[in-house]
Write the structure tokens for this entry.
Amino acid sequence: MLFFVVFVLFSMLVLRLGIVQIVYGEDFKREIERTEEVTVNNPVPRGKMYDRNIQTIVDNTPSNAITYTKSQGTSTEEMLEVADRLAKIIEKDTESVRDRDKKDFWILKNPERAKEKITEKEWDLYEEKELDDKQIYDLQLERISEEDLKEFTDHDLEVLAIFREFNSGYALSPQIVKKEVTEKEYAAVSENLEQLPGVDTTTDWDRKYPFGGTLQTVLGKVTDASEGLPREQLDYYLSRDYSRNDRVGKSYIEMQYEDVLRGQKAKVKNVTDKAGNVLDTEVITEGQRGKDLVLTIDMDLQLAVEEIIEEELLKAKQTAGTRLLDRAFVVMMDPHTGEVLTMAGKQITRDDNGKTSVNDFALGNITTSYAVGSAVKGATVLTGLQQGAITPSTTFLDTPVKIKDTQPKRSWRAGLGVLNYKDALKVSSNVYMFRTAINVGEGNYRYDQPLSLRPDTFEIFRNSFAQFGLGVRTGIDLPNEMVGFKGPERGPGKLLDYSIGQYDTYTAMQLAQYVSTIANGGNRIQPRIVKEIREPVMNNNEVGPVIKSMDPVVLNRVDADPSWIEGVQEGFRRVMQEPNGTARGAFAGAAYKPAGKTGTAQAFYDGPERKRFDKTPEVMNLSLVAYAPHKNPEVAISVLVPWAYEGSTGHHANNDIGRRVLDTYFDLKKKRQEQNLTPEEPVQQINDEETTEQQEDAEEQAE
């Protein structure tokens, strides 16, 4: 019987082997030989940024790095073993390791002890499927004590930090384990690659800023490998062929031009067997680093303007003794193309130890807004002319305006006399603007009597101001631009405040667009921070060919007779070039013949120190808009100095900054021209300039 049973069993075994080999043999052979092709994208360096004169602003600097590529079949135990070996060769920072990471690692290292954290009753509930795996795991995590975690040695924590990096990558996608690897570590790892499956040495790239912190807030930042894709935009980037650990622009220019700067990834095809082991690797495309951006910024000018702001800011802070002044802004742009030549801002900050420093705050030109005062009076005059509320020949006697049950409203100085709109701009008459606003609202004004205006008067003014870029987005090619704040009240007194720039708030970029619109004759031009997109080249000392040039964009044309705009231009010229002009003292003798408008606004402090005060301090904001030359202008600027001082006496940092900035622009222009001219040419150029100036002086005397 025993022999018979054994015979039958062997017969069945032979029969089964025959079926496997003969009937299904080819199928099983194909299954064993089956391979899988997996395409992996490897990151490439980002594109560079240059200024308009092709000076490098943002570059890539290479650094040694160690990566780990996880195979599809790699087990946790294998990764831990490799991490342990690698930890003996390199030093890995453990500051990023969280308590949760330590608890997960403790369970991995102590599986039996982890089981003991669960009671028999809980295991019974698990068997009865009243507790699932996640609930059991959560109970284990909860019961791991501080004493348990203290068992980890420094080496254990390094292993954990390395294992954490191993585990954060995709299968077959290289994951950076450590950046800024020392030469010694790099060599040691390279020598031991055979004992470190999946580990490799490579070159990584970091952003480099040759000009330091200059314009840093506008250039933006890039995520690092540990951050990867921003959580709030994860689905967006994954749908565009990004990997979770890819580095992307997370703010401003880096983010706005991500599609340009990211480059074309290298594509590598990995051929794997059924177990996930890589059998062969084939490069499909080499990849190409990101395209380069040429910005509109002139870095020589930017640096000089930043220095001017810092000096004048500290000077005003010391001489005027103002306790709240801490920032100032300057935007300089081409009024015909919208190219932003300078976007500078500085802020005085204080650390926890009371030490002060002056930091870059260029971003404040588009992200912070303030009441700017009389700088907007050019828009008020043109609104009045558009609405037929005044004519070029309209005059008003500058006497205080009083609405019943309110305080009188007057100009900054008494005795300005009878004024037309050009001289009203020149001497900065508030009363002229008040009377213009009342006429726009079709009000019947009588001194110390109630005043009723059209219900839509505010909309008329705000829509008109929007034609110049005031109270609306300028359209600059940067994210998170601020529109400003609109006052909620609609009373007649608030309208009068609005007409002199002391109600709604505006940014320095809006002021620059506004004055450029007046300077160029009525075209609101979109400001631009990027001038060109260029093809990347292998030689780091060269720039590639232009792929795309950013052409000027006219957002709208101001609905005004050209002669009215010319009249405002003349008023702006008088402000800076004629006696009694509010900016004459600062700009007297300027060879470049500027035009512009000053502004002083009574406001309430709303800065970072506001919590220290029981009552919000009243402050004065200073502003300046200007362009030069007044005939055929080539540059426009806005200057904004918020919270400049308290009380009635202070300083003129807006005018001082504006004069020095325009001087610097024309001095730099002259210096560059002299460097590019042959020895015979400068003489002829100087003679031509003198002849032109003499002709202009003669024309002005004739006028």
Q: What stands out?
A: Residues 501 and 677 are 45 Å apart (CA to CA).
